[in-house]
Write a structure and sequence with these properties.
The complex is a heterotrimer of chains A (about 350), B (about 500) and C (about 120). Chain A is an all-alpha fold and about 350 residues long. Chain A contains twelve helices and two strands. The longest helix of chain A has about 35 residues, at about 20-50. Chain B has one domain (about 10-485). Chain B has a two-stranded antiparallel sheet with strand order 1-2. In chain B, helix 2 runs antiparallel to helix 3, helix 3 (about 80-100) runs antiparallel to helix 10 (about 240-265) and helix 12 (about 295-320) packs antiparallel against helix 17. Chain B is globular. The two termini of chain B are about 40 Å apart. Chain C has one domain (about 1-115): Up-down Bundle (Methane Monooxygenase Hydroxylase, Chain G, domain 1). Chain C has two helices and no strands. Chain C has helices at about 5-30, 60-115. Classes of the chains: A mainly alpha (about 350), B mainly alpha (about 500), C mainly alpha (about 120). Chains in contact: A-C, B-C. At the A-C interface, helix 2, helix 3, helix 4, helix 6 and helix 10 of A face helix 1 and helix 2 of C.
Chain lengths: ~350, ~500, ~120
Amino acid sequence: MTLPLAHMLIVAPKREVWWIGAIEALVILNALLLTFAFMTLIERKVLGRLQLRYGPNRAGPFGIIQPFADLIKLVRKAPFQPDRLIHPALYLGAPVLSATMAFLAFSVIPWGGGWELYGYQIDGQVVNVPISLVVVFAIGSISTYGVLIGGWVSESKFALLGAMRTGAQLVSYEVALALSVLGVVLMARSLSLTEIVAAQHRTIWYVVPQIVGFGCFAIAGVAEVGRAPFDLPEAEQELVAGYHTEFSGMRWGLFQIAEYVHMITVSALMVTLFFGGWLFPVLHRFGPIWFVLKLAIVLFCFIWARASLPRLRYDQLMNLGWKVLLPIATVNAVATAFFVVLR
Amino acid sequence: MIRTPAIDWLTLAPSLALLAATIASLMAAVLVPERRRRNVSWFFCLAGYAGAFAAAAILFDRSPHSRGVIANALFRDRYGALAAMIVAGVGLLTTLVYYGERSTVDRVGERFALLASAGGGMILFAQSANLLTLFLGLEWLSISLYVLCALERERPEAIEAGFKYLIVGGFSSAILVFGAAFVYGATGTLNLAQIAGKAPSGDLFLITGLAMILVGFAFKASAAPFHTWTPDVYQGAATPVSGFMAGATKAVALLVALRVLSVSFSAQEHLWTSAAAALAVTSLVVGNLAALAQRDLKRMLAYSSISHAGFLLFAITAASSLGTRALLYYLIPYGAASVGVFALAALHERELGEPATLDNLAGFGWRRPLSGIALWIFMLSFAGFPLTGGFVGKVYLFAAAYRSGWTWLLIVGAVATLVSLGYYLAVVRAIYMRPEPGEKAAAKEEPPLLDRMLSTAVFAAVIVTVGSFFAVQPLIDLAKHAASQLPL
Amino acid sequence: MLRNWLPFLIYGLFASGITGLMLFISFALSTRARTKPAQQGLPFESGVSTGAPTRQRFTIGFYLTAMLFILFDIEIVFLYPLAIVLDKLAWFGFSELVVFVGLLAVAYVYVWRKGALEWE
């Protein structure tokens, strides 16, 4: 399996069969679920350490089975619905939609170069389409509907307000997010994430020439997944719990899954677009390992930001998105276009 | 390497001038200090229309042969250039009239930006050489007009006008684009020149598409039975805007309709001429009879514009070079008179602070002798009296219809003209032969500059209306050059 | 080309299966209270409950933001295809890009000065 890099990048179509895709899908989905589960634990541990506390340490050594305890608790929680739902099917469908779309967005992220195993071709990503970058944004946006529907259908003041805020925040930062990536697309001349990774191998990690775009992407990405310091949708002092005020048990858990998987997807996207994806200057064959390592660093930064930064006010949030990030990202895109054409 | 189209800047120049004016006045509307906002925005709009008129005149001069430019997206020809000149002329007069219109401070600049934008869209619409640019131009002009109608949102009538226009206009655009899709399905091309001959002349999809496109144009030209939005919109919109819609929108809608029908659907001529005849008769009947019953001046003018759509449709019914010439010629005095009469309505409204009606017009002719004379000149031009361009235009239209064998249409037209005297002369009677309602109408003094702008516009409109009667030959020559470029 | 989307479909089926299953087990394996607390179904109101708010109106700002989003998202939709072929279109493409962004900048300046981006 020690293929030269060129073979890993330009994978010759060998025998592709559908069940390999199915196996890959199952592996990735379970990996995502595990990452989510332990993210909740690691986040609490790290937050604890950063605030000079211990964090969860009762369930198992170092609290390692805490996520499973949480899962059992969520599943066992008595199901109830608010009396005055607008529609029960929407109430149950909203979290499912949110979580499904969060999972789906990750499917196009490349995490390896592809291998040949017993004559079968195994791709380095579940779905390899030429417009994978657009797919991530498109699917990610559908997830917003889950939040909006969930908040609206609950017929509760806080949930509705939270949903409206979330909607406004997500669409505001969606613009900046998509524009900040434009520089990368211009340089790689492709919307395929696989191609973008390959282009970075040929030249340089795009974080160097696209440092401005990276900055915009990092800020907009954090806002897009609604994490601190942009976690206004769930600002507990103002909104109790935001759009999922009226959700409990696993319905609430699905919203949590959606949020964390989104965070993982955005981190993976950041790694792919700006840090060379699964590639590393040395030891290419360990593609997935490099990918996971980079991902872990970015995810740690997410937690770090949550521990260190105070939450923004809503008007500051909107100002930052519309009056700062949008012009900067646009200028960055035009400047990049200029240099691309100049060369 | 992707092949990029060669850009013919002269063809684009009229709409680009107005686009630049739109941008400049929009920026002036927010960046210039409040005190000078109106003047600066207004100036940019005026300069844009003047530039567009000049560019269109040069384009007319330098396009002796019709050809498609910019990847066949636009026609470079005299027909489009003359249409652009009519639009720019009407726009120029409207800008003058619009200057003194009352408005709240926070939207004084935007209206000029929107006015310039609507004109730019109309010119692109008139020059379009494929169904896509045609739709683009249509939307560009329509959306600007929707907003322009509703701009004075303090008045409920303005909101109503904007909303009605938006709904009905959006509906008609949808029908038109649906028809374009049918045509594309039948022929596989969007290019106007290539549509002809691509499908059998009896192809059901093609004919469905043709019918829907025709309906779309009829909406925009406010021909009955697709006219229902017109009275409310003309009444509710700011008065100069109504004049602009009557003079320019109707003109481009009819001109583009004639172009599309003659260029793309020459094989279905028998169908669309009959349809145009039906539309013309309906418009004449509905417009004239309803206008008789109106007391509100703007409403009456709206119905008069519907009946004029009927007269102008004679040109499409005739489907001949003579008809095209007549249409192009008639649009010149008609556009001028429309702007002029709405300008006088605006003047009267500004004096009274209430809508102009036939009742409160009493004594207008004695109080303002020159404006009174202008008003009756416009009315006579609408009615088709000699010494005004309306007379020559109507004669031309009737001759074209007669030449193409539509004798019965001629009779309907003659009766309609007689009926129309009933309401056009009612206005003249109202301003001279009705007792003035005492002290109530004591004119409030206006700042002199506002008056001057409006007077200039009215004066220019009078010159054009009367001048087009005396200077028939040069105008007919213009129209002849332009008309010869349509395949009729 | 369409074959590339097959794994997407499979993945989507699995993903919805997993989330659907989670929803299902939260009903199947959950505990049930013997008696339902009387006030449990009321919307959360931190103490003084006045029932659910019905059909309240919202700040126009939210709708305005949504409209601006459409405007600028369309911008991005246009720019992505252009970005891919920009090196082939060279300066023609770049000037198109600049004109397009310039027009949007006009709208942006207008919207900003009109105060549509302000929140209170």
